[in-house]
Design brief:
The protein has 10 helices and 15 strands. It has 332 residues and is α/β, with parallel strands linked by helices. The strands form 2 sheets. Strands 14-13-12-11-7-10-9-8-15 form a 9-stranded mixed β-sheet. Strands 3-2-1-4-5-6 form a 6-stranded parallel β-sheet, sandwiched between helices. Strand 13 and strand 14 form a beta hairpin. It is globular and about 60 Å long.
Length: 332
């Protein structure tokens, strides 16, 4: 297959630490990077061996690229996505897709109408742990799934304590950063849609101007299954986990809500406890590989634009629930 040529919209930490390497590992080429700060963009290009940098979105989209990776602040995604669609570029967009559900729908529809590949960077559904849980549930190994629980409470390191906890205009806060991941991972593992959510938020001192740095809640799914979620920026020593409990067994995943290809899954049923076999691989590489194949007409992306829209709808509904102090129906 012809190498896919990429432009990076945003000289970001996630691109530097994860996505650049994943693109190159699957044979892609990174041609250009856009940053609003010329000096920062130039330094970023040098450090990451990218031939060109620019401050102009138009210049980046006019360069010889096939696809873009959008990882700027959440409030900029829609405008940059629409410009990429107009330029005929395939799009991998960070979550959340944007700040409003109507804007996310417009983004998804525009890419679809233009015949372009669009993916959301929901890396967690690429984890071996979650794939094994999905497979076990689909095969009936725990009977009918009736409860789930996700702990995605972490500590936000100092170098990331910028706009995520300070700037309300960007869509800051833990719900749009982490709850969207829970929503997508639950949808993927369970194979069904959430229909309502009830949540409460917390500000324990890290979030500025009342921005939530913790959230707990419950999602109700189509089958009646209830799923608890706990997300935070402020827990230094918590371990991430994901449990699904059924009528005939339970699945326990540990250290699984992470960027790294780690973690374990244990099935507990009438015959005792059994560790599920896992084939760990870089989560971002799995996503990029599928994206490249989709561009060449060979298969589908692992997390679509529609998946990104649905995870956003759930997170926005959780925030509405916290504000209204009631269970909120999710509208997609």
């Amino acid at each position: 297959m012809k190498a896919v040529r990429w432009g990076l919209i945003g000289a970001t930490n996630i691109a530097k630490t994860q996505v650049i390497a994943a693109i190159r590992a699957d044979g892609g080429e990174i041609v250009n990077v856009m940053s609003s700060d010329a000096a920062r963009g130039a330094a970023y290009a040098r450090e990451n061996h990218i031939p060109h940098s620019t401050t102009s979105l138009k210049a980046l989209l006019s360069s010889d690229i096939d696809a873009v990776y959008i990882s700027t602040t959440n409030n900029l995604h829609k405008r940059q996505h629409m410009a990429a669609v107009a330029a005929g570029k395939h799009i991998l967009c960070e979550k959340p897709l944007t700040l409003k559900l109507a804007d996310a729908r417009a983004m998804v529809d525009a890419a679809d109408k233009a015949g372009l590949v669009m993916a959301t960077n929901h890396h967690l559904r690429n984890a071996a742990t979650h794939g094994a849980m999905r497979d076990a549930i689909a095969k009936g190994r725990i009977g009918k799934a009736i409860f789930a629980r996700v702990c995605h409470a972490v500590y936000l390191p100092a170098h990331l304590q910028g706009w995520r906890i300070k700037d309300t205009k960007t869509g800051a806060g833990v719900a749009l950063d982490i709850t969207v991941h829970d929503a997508d991972t639950l949808r993927f593992v369970l194979g069904e849609e959430a229909v309502s959510v009830s949540a409460m938020v917390q500000n324990s001192g890290m979030g500025h101007s009342g921005i939530e740095d913790g959230i707990m809640g419950t999602m109700r799914f189509e089958s009646g299954l209830l799923a608890q979620f706990h997300d935070a920026y402020t827990t230094r020593y918590a371990r991430t986990s994901f449990e699904v409990h059924g009528t005939e067994g339970s699945l326990y995943a540990q250290d699984c809500m992470t960027q790294n290809p780690i973690g374990s899954v244990t099935l507990r049923d009438k015959d005792g406890e059994h560790a599920l076999e896992l084939a760990h691989e870089n989560l971002y590489l799995r996503g990029v590989r599928a994206f490249h194949k989709a561009i060449h007409g060979k298969g589908q992306v692992l997390a679509s634009g529609e998946d990104g829209l649905r995870s956003l709808a759930i997170a926005l509904s959780a925030l509405r629930s916290a504000k209204s102090h009631r269970e909120v129906s999710i509208q997609y």
